[in-house]
């Protein structure tokens, strides 16, 4: 299993992405494949975040809806029809699935709030990352200069004709984000580590982006 920690320089949170799991088989239908992976995702989240209070995963629709989680919500493995989540509550694990689209972590380094969004071609064009930044400002008084935006593995040119990772960087810069990080990894270039919906013609699994604010 490909497992990569993110944002290790920030002591108040833990963040990872989970890549390809060798030998795991999936139904042909994408949503059924996602549901089949949820028990594994929950088990992985419990192992990575033993102090977690709850785990939420977005059931993305390539839109711009973002859920605000305060910690009082009932447990829900898959939240339908959203492509992002925001919280400032410690112990709440946010999960975003992806298989070519970009997982994007947006962290307020001062007010200790975090957003995790799914931004592929359509979501990027619709502005989900700027919307998440605006919500952090509106809900938690975040200042763009205090934000760190990190773009995880996603499909990139020349494997895909649209460089939406570049667009995300440009959107973040235009919003005044203080620090922009990009892993620069193309999911379609290394099928031993990553799933690629495009390269595998839809018959593939999902990777998982995770983040949790710590209580101390």
Strand content: 25-35%
Q: Given this structure, which CATH class is correct? A: Alpha Beta
What is the CATH superfamily? CNF1/YfiH-like putative cysteine hydrolases
Number of domains: 1
Could you explain the architecture of this structure?
This protein has 216 residues and is of the alpha/beta class. It has helices at 30-48, 121-126, 128-140, 164-174; strands at 3-6, 13-18, 54-59, 66-69, 78-80, 84-87, 92-98, 102-108, 113-119, 147-151, 179-182, 207-213. The model has no long low-confidence stretch (mean pLDDT 92). Strands 1-2-12-7-3-5 form a six-stranded mixed beta sheet, with helices on one face. Strands 4-6-9-8-10-11 form a six-stranded mixed beta sheet. The chain has a single domain, classed as CNF1/YfiH-like putative cysteine hydrolases (4-Layer Sandwich), CATH 3.60.140.10. The longest helix is centred in the N-terminal third of the chain and has 19 residues, at 30-48. Helix 4 links the parallel strand 10 and strand 11.
Notable features of this structure?
six-stranded mixed sheet; 216 residues; 12 strands; single chain; 4 helices; CNF1/YfiH-like putative cysteine hydrolases; alpha/beta
Give a brief outline of the structure.
With 216 residues, this protein is α/β, with parallel strands linked by helices. The protein has helices spanning 30-48, 121-126, 128-140, 164-174; strands at residues 3-6, 13-18, 54-59, 66-69, 78-80, 84-87, 92-98, 102-108, 113-119, 147-151, 179-182, 207-213.
């Amino acid at each position: 299993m490909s497992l990569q920690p993110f944002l290790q320089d920030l002591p108040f949170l833990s963040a990872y992405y989970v890549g390809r799991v060798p030998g795991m088989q999936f139904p042909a239908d994408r949503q059924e494949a996602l549901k089949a992976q949820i028990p594994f995702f929950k088990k992985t989240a419990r192992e990575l975040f033993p102090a977690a209070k709850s785990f939420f995963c977005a059931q993305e629709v390539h839109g711009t809806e973002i859920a605000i989680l305060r910690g009082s919500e009932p447990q829900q493995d898959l939240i339908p029809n959203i492509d992002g989540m925001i919280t400032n509550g410690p112990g709440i694990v946010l999960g975003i699935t992806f298989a070519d689209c970009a997982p994007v972590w947006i962290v307020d380094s001062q007010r200790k709030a975090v957003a995790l969004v799914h931004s592929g071609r359509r979501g990027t064009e619709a502005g989900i990352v700027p919307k998440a930044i605006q919500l952090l400002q509106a809900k938690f008084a975040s200042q763009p200069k205090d934000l760190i935006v990190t773009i995880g593995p996603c499909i990139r040119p020349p494997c895909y004709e649209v460089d939406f990772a570049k667009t995300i960087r440009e959107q973040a810069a235009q919003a005044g984000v203080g620090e922009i990080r990009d892993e620069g990894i193309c999911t379609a270039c290394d099928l031993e580590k990553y799933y690629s919906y495009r390269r595998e013609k839809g018959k593939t699994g999902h990777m998982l982006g995770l983040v949790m604010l710590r209580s101390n």
